[in-house]
């Protein structure tokens, strides 16, 4: 596999954590989450330019051939958990390490809304982002790419406006005053709109300042440095 980095955090755990990632991809979401928790983890960056994520070796770990993939193993043990799908990884980590309070308590209104927003992001916005960035998979003629991408932008923007309305009451984060992993998810998907022609998430009146707040968090700054992210940041 490609480059591997180990990080020495403030919070030690007997669990060995490995995250397979591609720089700037959806794997940034659990990467930021791990940094927010300040857990020790290894990150293995795959080289997408030579399709390392489609290699026989990686497909044995994640048969979908995408990132992220999380591997968890207790120190000294032989059994390991291999988990893919970004939302599943986020839910698992927040439940596995509840002391960091990166998801609302179970059986609360906030937890229900947490699930709702996570579903909207992972099944409503993220798949449309794939349409925008890979139009050749869905449109037969290059002459149709621009129209297809613009229509996709508009559809995504309407969903971003839902989050903008949620934030319009002056709250700091999606669910109020507390920062949760769903805020990381919204930030990264909003970041992907930086390449849109006309409908960038940062241009919305409440979502724009919110993105700036998330960007300034220590965990986000750390991941942007590790993954060598260049401007525009979001």
TrEMBL record:
Q: Note the PANTHER family from the entry.
A: GLUTATHIONE S-TRANSFERASE GSTA, GLUTATHIONE S-TRANSFERASE-RELATED
Q: Locate the GST C-terminal domain: which residues?
A: 107-233
Query: Which species does this protein come from?
Result: Naegleria fowleri (Brain eating amoeba)
Q: Which InterPro entries match?
A: Glutathione-S-Trfase_C-like, Glutathione-S-Trfase_C_sf, Glutathione_S-Trfase, Glutathione_S-Trfase_N, GST_C, Thioredoxin-like_sf
Recorded hits in CDD domains, A to Z, give: GST_C_Beta, GST_N_Beta
Name of the protein described by the UniProt record: Glutathione S-transferase
The family classification in the record reads: Belongs to the GST superfamily.
GST N-terminal domain spans which residues? 14-101
């Amino acid at each position: 596999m490609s480059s591997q980095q180990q990080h020495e955090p403030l919070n030690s755990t007997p669990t060995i954590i490995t995250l397979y990632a591609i720089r700037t991809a959806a794997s940034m979401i659990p990467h930021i989450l791990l940094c927010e928790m300040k857990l020790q983890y290894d990150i293995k960056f795959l080289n997408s330019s030579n399709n390392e994520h489609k290699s026989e070796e990686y497909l044995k770990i994640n048969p979908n051939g995408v990132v992220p993939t999380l591997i968890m193993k207790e120190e000294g043990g032989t059994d390991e958990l291999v988990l893919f799908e970004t939302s599943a990884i986020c839910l698992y980590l927040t439940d596995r390490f509840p002391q960091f309070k990166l998801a609302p308590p179970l059986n609360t209104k906030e937890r229900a809304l947490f699930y709702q927003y996570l579903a909207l992001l992972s099944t409503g916005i993220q798949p449309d982002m794939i349409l925008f960035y890979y139009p050749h998979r869905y449109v037969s003629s290059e002459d149709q790419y621009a129209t297809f991408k613009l229509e996709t932008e508009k559809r995504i923007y309407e969903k971003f406006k839902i989050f903008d309305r949620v934030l319009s009451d002056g709250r700091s984060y999606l669910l109020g005053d507390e920062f949760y992993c769903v805020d990381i998810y919204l930030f990264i998907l909003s970041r992907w709109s930086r390449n849109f022609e006309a409908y960038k998430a940062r241009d919305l009146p409440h979502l724009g300042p919110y993105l700036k707040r998330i960007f300034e968090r220590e965990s986000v700054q750390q991941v942007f440095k590790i993954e060598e992210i260049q401007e525009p940041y979001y």
